[in-house]
UniProtKB/TrEMBL annotation, chains A, B:
<dbReference type="InterPro" id="IPR047090">
    <property type="entry name" value="AspRS_core"/>
</dbReference>
<feature type="region of interest" description="Aspartate">
    <location>
        <begin position="197"/>
        <end position="200"/>
    </location>
</feature>
<feature type="site" description="Important for tRNA non-discrimination">
    <location>
        <position position="81"/>
    </location>
</feature>
<feature type="binding site">
    <location>
        <begin position="219"/>
        <end position="221"/>
    </location>
    <ligand>
        <name>ATP</name>
    </ligand>
</feature>
<dbReference type="InterPro" id="IPR004524">
    <property type="entry name" value="Asp-tRNA-ligase_1"/>
</dbReference>
<keyword id="KW-0436">Ligase</keyword>
<feature type="site" description="Important for tRNA non-discrimination">
    <location>
        <position position="30"/>
    </location>
</feature>
<keyword id="KW-0648">Protein biosynthesis</keyword>
<dbReference type="InterPro" id="IPR004115">
    <property type="entry name" value="GAD-like_sf"/>
</dbReference>
<keyword id="KW-0963">Cytoplasm</keyword>
<dbReference type="InterPro" id="IPR045864">
    <property type="entry name" value="aa-tRNA-synth_II/BPL/LPL"/>
</dbReference>
<dbReference type="GO" id="GO:0005737">
    <property type="term" value="C:cytoplasm"/>
</dbReference>
<comment type="subunit">
    <text>Homodimer.</text>
</comment>
<dbReference type="GO" id="GO:0003676">
    <property type="term" value="F:nucleic acid binding"/>
</dbReference>
<dbReference type="GO" id="GO:0004815">
    <property type="term" value="F:aspartate-tRNA ligase activity"/>
</dbReference>
<dbReference type="Pfam" id="PF00152">
    <property type="entry name" value="tRNA-synt_2"/>
</dbReference>
<feature type="binding site">
    <location>
        <begin position="534"/>
        <end position="537"/>
    </location>
    <ligand>
        <name>ATP</name>
    </ligand>
</feature>
Amino acid sequence: MRSHYCGDLRKEHVGEEITLNGWVHRRRDHGGVIFLDVRDREGLTQVVFDPDREESFALADSVRNEFVIEVRGLVRDRPEGTVNPDMPTGEIEVLGKELVILNKAETPPFQLDEHQQVGEDVRLRHRYIDLRRPEMQDKLRFRSKVTNAIRNYLDDNGFLDIETPILNRATPEGARDYLVPSRTHEGSFFALPQSPQLFKQLLMVAGFDRYYQIAKCFRDEDLRADRQPEFTQIDIETSFMDEEAIMGMTENMIRELFQNMLDIDLGDFPRMPYAEAMQRYGSDKPDLRFPMELVDVADLMAEIEFKVFAGPAKDPKGRVAALKVPGGAQLTRKIIDEYTKFVGIYGAKGLAWIKVNELEKGAEGLQSPIVKFLGEDVAMKIMERLEVQNGDIVFFGADKEKVVSEALGALRIKVGEDMNMAQCEWAPLWVVDFPMFEETDKGGVTALHHPFTAPSCSPEELKANPLTALSRAYDMVLNGCELGGGSVRIHDQAMQKTVFDVLGISDEEAEEKFGFLLNALQFGAPPHGGLAFGLDRLIMLMTGTESIREVIAFPKTQSASCMMTEAPGEVSAAQLRELNIKLRKTP
Amino acid sequence: MRSHYCGDLRKEHVGEEITLNGWVHRRRDHGGVIFLDVRDREGLTQVVFDPDREESFALADSVRNEFVIEVRGLVRDRPEGTVNPDMPTGEIEVLGKELVILNKAETPPFQLDEHQQVGEDVRLRHRYIDLRRPEMQDKLRFRSKVTNAIRNYLDDNGFLDIETPILNRATPEGARDYLVPSRTHEGSFFALPQSPQLFKQLLMVAGFDRYYQIAKCFRDEDLRADRQPEFTQIDIETSFMDEEAIMGMTENMIRELFQNMLDIDLGDFPRMPYAEAMQRYGSDKPDLRFPMELVDVADLMAEIEFKVFAGPAKDPKGRVAALKVPGGAQLTRKIIDEYTKFVGIYGAKGLAWIKVNELEKGAEGLQSPIVKFLGEDVAMKIMERLEVQNGDIVFFGADKEKVVSEALGALRIKVGEDMNMAQCEWAPLWVVDFPMFEETDKGGVTALHHPFTAPSCSPEELKANPLTALSRAYDMVLNGCELGGGSVRIHDQAMQKTVFDVLGISDEEAEEKFGFLLNALQFGAPPHGGLAFGLDRLIMLMTGTESIREVIAFPKTQSASCMMTEAPGEVSAAQLRELNIKLRKTP
């Protein structure tokens, strides 16, 4: 067994006889001497073998990259002129005395430092090699430290770590549920949990007061770049605390985490109502690193003849907004075309713009394909409202409210990134005062969060004006990402029934799907609320990682398969028979 | 929000104005005054309402058991003569000033202190009420403390908490696997993991050096009293450590845990080879709290005419053993009949016995139905070997080795418990030197642990004598329960192939099922090994709990269903269609 990790050796160890275990990271011949860079979890150390020790020299000569070895030797100063200041162990080297080859290695399918040249497929197929890369080692170690820090914070604050089941009840309409056929109950299925929501509420009814769990959750949906079929949630629930107290405690947890892990002070998180976030930033998770804001100009456009603007300006569900980009007049036609394509992703049918060249010339000084349609007077009123300066560009969106907000909201961030406009590295906030419900495309009503979220009004008011009712929900946002979200929950059976009613869930359906919750609410449910953080997302943000697959040891691909184990796989007819199912079509 | 937990109030708080949140545990009228015992997670406090404060008195009069309330009031000494030394808060009471009813409660289906009169069914159906019982609160809180302590121990020792997937690869022959149909890969299935075994080995190949995870595992089998379809494992794996080091570190973890959580010193754990455990205790997890041992007497029986003993005595796969119970001559016929039935569970066809009444009279002084078949001479030789004394009873087993060991091994513990023969409260040990393989009933060979366990011999020796080869496995046993088990793993591809070969797994099958492991072994796999503890079992032992369902918040029944949520449930035909499966029979 090792006496030291490779990466831990320093000048203070000079003169010590040590033992290392690790992998041959690199092998060099130089001046009749063999240099092995030996790697373990903690880093690299250079080990030197000279021909005086015949046996170990011959062995050292025979090793290849990724061989697993044990080395005994003497730590010494590196000869003058060979100190490597870029390596933490660069001041010393080990004079190798004994070498044992613990395991040989075939030439790996890719060298660790050449991972970018090989496709992600190859790396995922040989994940056990890919994970040897120092970046991957660092990220997963960081993840482990983060979960440990969070657990200790919650433990110190009286939270109990309680496990909830993975084999949950499947229900009809369980879209996105992964199903598990039951062998003992023919024709019945378990569902893997999308979150422990109901169980954590029941733990509050049971009086546990403060619960947490770092919980695996599952969602069977078509995967976007940043989703995984199984993901991990830091799941929190408390009793007898209102939204202020819950936000305060969890904000403090995240602040301490950033302070302790990254030495970053996030400061106090500002609060912003949902309506304001949508209006100013076109997003319910605004990225406040960028100062630009959307400005509404529908009132100035309502009376013009140009239908593209006037139509949405007069439509109560429409929006006309402008985004001023300081210094954006320099943007080329090509870049503007790219942005036009970009907002198209969000449904925008085009991207009107005005460049401000010489404001002192009035409308003459504006360069734009649309000024002639707006009329000079309206154009100048808009310029005035936006307080433009020479060299700015103004982009416009005019469409349904959702399209304009999403398109300009996304453009705001894209331009901000492209033009390096971030004014700070970290911009956290709370978004609050969400609507309880939103209209569906079919004119129905759906819960913006989930149907267990408490409204901030009475059941009567909720029933009278569901679409204007606000909820007691809150989302923690960092740099335009939703880190976590939660709410005060409904603890009153009558209120819960009202919400089901507004959502068009019949009494029978409510009883069938949530009977146990409704039951629980009548036997002394305390006021309660909580929050869930996405752990994968949190680690991505903290480590500056673009892909979720880089913060998970064994991730799935976008088609929800594992390249390494080739999951999912085929099973035997006998197995299916035991589960009382059969394949509809044979593959 | 509360200023104090109910259970935390003490004499030092007298004179303070405090706020409590909790449940009405009991309500009493006494001398025109109302007493409410208010309960929260930390305990009970008595709150007194007197008629002077009309409003709160009326409210206090209206509350019923399990109402959720907030109380503001003044802590004061209890009047002389009413101090309750059995309650931690029994020296004080709270004079209630304000009372708010936060939620009402219907009369619960059972009172918390009457849980034993209602069936487990009713309690599991209303688990959120059952969990309010102080015992359940204590057990789940204890469980949370244990996992936190274990995590911190492992974190302090450089172990990284790394999550492995729940959606794993299904394979044909995956008996006991829960299956999850894939929507994106028609006709393919995921399997829920029985353990993270292969992933943790791959993490070692990836160089993480020390891994742990408190991991959910799944097994679809007919449930015995102490099993659950989903259970939790403390899963540990290390590189470059041999069995001594791994056992040392994990033994220390368990010792510290018992010391810190229960103030119990387990001392050093003795080691016992598997063969010795089977011989002396008839079990691979001997309960060393009881001193009795099995004594082999086949050599004395081989030549007698009585076939029941002589047959197994001469059979190389047979065993004839005796169990001396000091003071057991007092056992009644009825109890002996019960024991006879008991050993029948393990396949024993009967239970022969000899009572030692007056040893000084020789065979005359023995009372037994079998002495006449043994012959007096043999009977006395057995008595001599067993060093019997007057008042003892000797039980006999004669059958296949497995039957005798299991039957007498179990009887040993049963008698030990019945007669209070435990010599200590805690008896830990390591069982080591397990055989690599055992013969199956069909004459084949199966792995005693799993096929990734390293043997303590060369591939050649293993191949030549598979049934006598020993493995580098180890089990930690406490009071006759297997707390955890593990082994040094195979890190050499050739050795792994040899083991598959001995097990009759063809190259194709090995490639199909474990190709990724075999692949990984050729790219620089370090020597590695590990261990997994059953967390549920550990908590049961530490809290003295008989049923696994008492240490899990939301357990399944023995038919693998959840009484509360009624899982598993039915799903729609559309859901199944999307998964490309259909039911074989409609239920």
